[in-house]
Amino acid sequence: MAGSRSSGRRKGRGAAPTRRFPRTARLNALLTEIVGDYFERADDDELGFLTITGVEVDSDLNVAEIFISVLGSEPDDDAGILEALAEHRKPVQRAIADQARLRKTPEAVFTFDPAVRSGARIDSILADLGPLADDGDSDTLPADEDE
Prior knowledge:
By secondary structure, the chain is α+β, with helices and mostly antiparallel strands. It is built from four helices and three strands; from the N terminus they run αββααβα.
């Protein structure tokens, strides 16, 4: 066939599988791992028990919002923790640039994970309520009278 061109793509059974995750979801997972590894090696006593709960990158890769949780921290401690994290912003961005193959490196912005804070608040409210009134064995099913 003299006039036909091949596009170079394979069709049918040999075609590349469709990806299950959108690009940003894969990138968020990769950056969560990179940032987590960075802080695992970082030696900063001001951060305490820091956990990277997730990363969300905006669609144009300008900003990577890094969600954190610090075990035992109170909202009064937030300013000090964010100040300590600000010192790690550039090294975190450097780690992202070195390990992720991106055209541009997003700016790292640290923020406390609102889901963790909400969960802790709910736990606190439930703890303040104390044990609920229990009418005997409410956790067990009534016995079958036929047996």
